[in-house]
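Recap from last week: sequence in, structure out.
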Amino acid sequence: MPLELVTVPCLKDNYAYLIHDAESGQTALVDVPEVMPILNALEERGWKLGVILLTHHHSDHIQGVPDLVAATGAVVLGARADTTRLPRLDRALAEGDQITVGGETGYVLDVSGHTMGHIAFVFPGSHLAFTADSLMAGGCGRLFEGTPATMWASLSKLAALPGQTLICSGHEYTLSNLRFALTVEPENPALLARMVQVTAARAAEKATVPSLLSEELATNPFLRAGLPQVKAALGMGKASDAEVFAEIRARKDKF
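Predicted C-alpha coordinates:
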Protein backbone atom coordinates (compact mmCIF):
# COMPACT_ATOMS: atom_id res chain seq x y z
CA MET A 1 0.00 0.00 0.00
CA PRO A 2 1.24 3.52 -0.71
CA LEU A 3 2.08 5.79 2.17
CA GLU A 4 -0.75 7.98 3.42
CA LEU A 5 0.02 11.68 3.06
CA VAL A 6 -1.34 14.47 5.26
CA THR A 7 -0.55 18.11 4.47
CA VAL A 8 -0.36 20.18 7.67
CA PRO A 9 -0.67 23.98 7.34
CA CYS A 10 1.63 25.83 9.76
CA LEU A 11 2.51 29.43 10.57
CA LYS A 12 1.30 31.91 7.94
CA ASP A 13 2.06 29.99 4.75
CA ASN A 14 4.25 26.97 5.60
CA TYR A 15 3.47 23.30 5.19
CA ALA A 16 4.66 20.23 7.07
CA TYR A 17 3.87 16.73 5.85
CA LEU A 18 2.97 13.55 7.70
CA ILE A 19 3.50 10.22 5.96
CA HIS A 20 2.01 7.07 7.44
CA ASP A 21 2.34 3.38 6.70
CA ALA A 22 -1.00 1.79 7.61
CA GLU A 23 0.30 -1.78 7.83
CA SER A 24 3.11 -1.08 10.30
CA GLY A 25 1.60 1.99 11.92
CA GLN A 26 4.84 3.90 11.43
CA THR A 27 4.62 7.67 10.87
CA ALA A 28 7.21 10.19 9.73
CA LEU A 29 7.13 13.97 9.43
CA VAL A 30 8.86 16.29 6.99
CA ASP A 31 9.87 19.62 8.59
CA VAL A 32 8.59 21.25 11.78
CA PRO A 33 7.53 24.87 11.29
CA GLU A 34 5.49 24.74 14.51
CA VAL A 35 4.35 22.07 16.93
CA MET A 36 0.64 22.29 17.76
CA PRO A 37 -0.82 21.79 14.26
CA ILE A 38 1.34 18.68 13.91
CA LEU A 39 0.41 17.28 17.32
CA ASN A 40 -3.24 17.95 16.56
CA ALA A 41 -3.01 16.13 13.22
CA LEU A 42 -1.36 13.14 14.92
CA GLU A 43 -3.93 13.04 17.69
CA GLU A 44 -6.86 13.24 15.26
CA ARG A 45 -5.62 10.11 13.52
CA GLY A 46 -4.26 8.23 16.51
CA TRP A 47 -0.78 8.13 14.99
CA LYS A 48 2.53 8.00 16.88
CA LEU A 49 5.38 9.98 15.35
CA GLY A 50 8.63 8.05 15.03
CA VAL A 51 10.83 10.01 12.60
CA ILE A 52 11.37 13.67 11.73
CA LEU A 53 12.97 14.41 8.35
CA LEU A 54 14.50 17.88 7.92
CA THR A 55 15.04 19.46 4.52
CA HIS A 56 17.14 22.52 5.43
CA HIS A 57 18.15 24.80 8.26
CA HIS A 58 15.83 27.79 7.89
CA SER A 59 13.96 28.47 11.11
CA ASP A 60 10.50 28.23 9.59
CA HIS A 61 11.25 24.57 8.83
CA ILE A 62 13.00 23.50 12.04
CA GLN A 63 12.01 25.78 14.90
CA GLY A 64 9.52 23.30 16.36
CA VAL A 65 11.95 20.36 16.48
CA PRO A 66 13.00 20.50 20.17
CA ASP A 67 9.44 20.70 21.47
CA LEU A 68 8.18 18.03 19.09
CA VAL A 69 10.99 15.65 20.04
CA ALA A 70 10.19 16.27 23.71
CA ALA A 71 6.51 15.51 23.07
CA THR A 72 6.93 12.44 20.88
CA GLY A 73 10.43 10.99 21.31
CA ALA A 74 10.87 10.97 17.53
CA VAL A 75 14.34 10.60 16.04
CA VAL A 76 15.65 13.38 13.80
CA LEU A 77 17.29 12.95 10.38
CA GLY A 78 18.86 15.70 8.29
CA ALA A 79 21.72 16.61 6.01
CA ARG A 80 25.25 15.70 7.06
CA ALA A 81 26.45 18.76 5.11
CA ASP A 82 24.41 21.05 7.37
CA THR A 83 24.81 19.53 10.83
CA THR A 84 26.16 22.77 12.31
CA ARG A 85 22.94 24.64 11.45
CA LEU A 86 20.35 21.95 12.14
CA PRO A 87 19.03 20.68 15.47
CA ARG A 88 20.88 17.66 16.88
CA LEU A 89 20.58 14.79 14.43
CA ASP A 90 20.18 11.14 15.32
CA ARG A 91 21.21 10.26 11.78
CA ALA A 92 23.06 12.42 9.26
CA LEU A 93 22.18 11.92 5.59
CA ALA A 94 23.76 12.50 2.20
CA GLU A 95 22.57 12.04 -1.38
CA GLY A 96 21.72 8.44 -2.14
CA ASP A 97 21.15 7.42 1.48
CA GLN A 98 18.04 5.34 2.06
CA ILE A 99 15.30 5.91 4.60
CA THR A 100 12.37 3.66 5.44
CA VAL A 101 8.84 4.37 6.60
CA GLY A 102 7.07 1.10 7.28
CA GLY A 103 7.43 -1.08 4.23
CA GLU A 104 8.56 1.64 1.86
CA THR A 105 12.11 2.73 1.18
CA GLY A 106 12.89 6.27 0.10
CA TYR A 107 16.11 8.03 -0.73
CA VAL A 108 17.81 11.40 -0.34
CA LEU A 109 18.63 13.92 -3.07
CA ASP A 110 20.96 16.87 -2.61
CA VAL A 111 18.97 19.83 -3.96
CA SER A 112 21.24 22.66 -2.86
CA GLY A 113 20.61 26.16 -4.15
CA HIS A 114 18.06 27.81 -1.87
CA THR A 115 20.53 26.81 0.82
CA MET A 116 23.65 24.69 0.57
CA GLY A 117 22.92 21.35 2.16
CA HIS A 118 19.21 21.45 1.28
CA ILE A 119 17.96 17.90 0.72
CA ALA A 120 14.80 16.35 -0.67
CA PHE A 121 13.20 13.03 0.27
CA VAL A 122 11.82 10.82 -2.50
CA PHE A 123 9.54 7.82 -1.93
CA PRO A 124 9.17 6.31 -5.41
CA GLY A 125 6.72 3.58 -4.41
CA SER A 126 4.20 6.18 -3.30
CA HIS A 127 5.22 8.75 -5.93
CA LEU A 128 6.11 11.36 -3.33
CA ALA A 129 8.93 13.93 -3.33
CA PHE A 130 9.38 16.31 -0.41
CA THR A 131 11.16 19.27 -1.95
CA ALA A 132 10.52 22.07 0.61
CA ASP A 133 12.05 25.27 -0.80
CA SER A 134 13.90 23.83 -3.80
CA LEU A 135 11.22 22.97 -6.38
CA MET A 136 8.00 24.73 -5.35
CA ALA A 137 4.50 24.81 -6.82
CA GLY A 138 4.85 27.08 -9.83
CA GLY A 139 8.31 28.25 -8.81
CA CYS A 140 11.48 27.60 -6.86
CA GLY A 141 13.15 29.00 -3.77
CA ARG A 142 15.29 32.11 -3.76
CA LEU A 143 19.01 31.50 -4.08
CA PHE A 144 20.15 32.57 -0.64
CA GLU A 145 23.34 30.49 -0.72
CA GLY A 146 23.76 28.60 -3.99
CA THR A 147 24.48 29.74 -7.54
CA PRO A 148 22.02 29.56 -10.44
CA ALA A 149 24.04 26.67 -11.87
CA THR A 150 23.77 24.79 -8.57
CA MET A 151 20.01 25.28 -8.40
CA TRP A 152 19.49 24.38 -12.05
CA ALA A 153 21.36 21.11 -11.44
CA SER A 154 19.17 20.41 -8.41
CA LEU A 155 15.94 21.16 -10.27
CA SER A 156 17.09 18.97 -13.14
CA LYS A 157 17.37 16.02 -10.74
CA LEU A 158 13.79 16.57 -9.62
CA ALA A 159 12.55 17.10 -13.18
CA ALA A 160 13.84 13.64 -14.06
CA LEU A 161 11.45 11.93 -11.61
CA PRO A 162 8.30 10.27 -13.01
CA GLY A 163 5.61 12.72 -14.01
CA GLN A 164 3.09 11.24 -11.56
CA THR A 165 5.31 12.23 -8.62
CA LEU A 166 3.59 14.51 -6.12
CA ILE A 167 5.81 17.51 -5.35
CA CYS A 168 5.35 18.31 -1.66
CA SER A 169 6.79 21.79 -1.30
CA GLY A 170 7.14 24.00 1.71
CA HIS A 171 4.98 27.09 1.19
CA GLU A 172 1.70 28.44 -0.16
CA TYR A 173 3.29 30.64 -2.79
CA THR A 174 1.57 29.16 -5.82
CA LEU A 175 -0.64 32.06 -6.83
CA SER A 176 2.15 34.64 -6.84
CA ASN A 177 4.46 32.15 -8.56
CA LEU A 178 1.96 31.64 -11.38
CA ARG A 179 1.40 35.38 -11.77
CA PHE A 180 5.10 35.66 -12.45
CA ALA A 181 5.11 32.59 -14.72
CA LEU A 182 2.59 34.34 -16.97
CA THR A 183 5.12 37.11 -17.59
CA VAL A 184 7.41 34.49 -19.11
CA GLU A 185 4.82 32.45 -21.03
CA PRO A 186 1.61 34.51 -21.26
CA GLU A 187 0.08 32.23 -23.89
CA ASN A 188 0.92 28.84 -22.33
CA PRO A 189 -2.50 27.09 -22.28
CA ALA A 190 -1.58 24.75 -19.42
CA LEU A 191 -0.39 27.71 -17.36
CA LEU A 192 -3.54 29.72 -18.09
CA ALA A 193 -5.71 26.78 -17.02
CA ARG A 194 -3.67 26.25 -13.87
CA MET A 195 -4.00 29.92 -12.97
CA VAL A 196 -7.79 29.63 -13.08
CA GLN A 197 -7.72 26.52 -10.88
CA VAL A 198 -5.31 27.98 -8.33
CA THR A 199 -7.16 31.28 -8.13
CA ALA A 200 -10.37 29.41 -7.35
CA ALA A 201 -8.65 27.19 -4.78
CA ARG A 202 -7.16 30.14 -2.93
CA ALA A 203 -10.46 32.00 -2.98
CA ALA A 204 -11.91 28.95 -1.23
CA GLU A 205 -8.94 28.92 1.19
CA LYS A 206 -7.78 25.52 -0.09
CA ALA A 207 -4.14 24.41 -0.27
CA THR A 208 -2.57 24.30 -3.72
CA VAL A 209 0.13 21.82 -2.73
CA PRO A 210 1.17 19.14 -3.29
CA SER A 211 1.25 19.36 -7.08
CA LEU A 212 2.01 16.83 -9.80
CA LEU A 213 5.46 16.99 -11.35
CA SER A 214 3.83 16.66 -14.77
CA GLU A 215 1.94 19.89 -14.04
CA GLU A 216 5.15 21.60 -12.94
CA LEU A 217 6.90 20.52 -16.13
CA ALA A 218 4.06 22.04 -18.16
CA THR A 219 3.75 25.34 -16.28
CA ASN A 220 6.71 26.12 -13.99
CA PRO A 221 9.14 28.47 -15.76
CA PHE A 222 12.06 27.36 -13.61
CA LEU A 223 11.76 23.81 -14.95
CA ARG A 224 11.20 25.05 -18.50
CA ALA A 225 14.36 27.14 -18.86
CA GLY A 226 15.84 24.65 -21.31
CA LEU A 227 12.94 24.75 -23.77
CA PRO A 228 13.50 26.56 -27.10
CA GLN A 229 10.21 28.46 -26.85
CA VAL A 230 11.12 29.82 -23.41
CA LYS A 231 14.60 30.84 -24.54
CA ALA A 232 13.07 32.56 -27.56
CA ALA A 233 10.52 34.39 -25.42
CA LEU A 234 13.37 35.79 -23.32
CA GLY A 235 15.55 36.66 -26.32
CA MET A 236 18.12 34.08 -25.17
CA GLY A 237 17.98 31.55 -27.99
CA LYS A 238 21.71 30.77 -27.85
CA ALA A 239 22.11 30.82 -24.06
CA SER A 240 22.72 27.73 -21.95
CA ASP A 241 19.89 26.26 -19.91
CA ALA A 242 21.54 27.43 -16.68
CA GLU A 243 21.93 30.97 -18.05
CA VAL A 244 18.25 31.10 -18.93
CA PHE A 245 17.33 29.80 -15.49
CA ALA A 246 19.50 32.53 -13.94
CA GLU A 247 17.66 35.19 -15.96
CA ILE A 248 14.25 33.84 -14.92
CA ARG A 249 15.31 33.74 -11.26
CA ALA A 250 16.64 37.32 -11.47
CA ARG A 251 13.35 38.49 -12.94
CA LYS A 252 11.37 36.73 -10.24
CA ASP A 253 13.48 38.34 -7.54
CA LYS A 254 12.39 41.74 -8.86
CA PHE A 255 8.75 40.77 -9.52
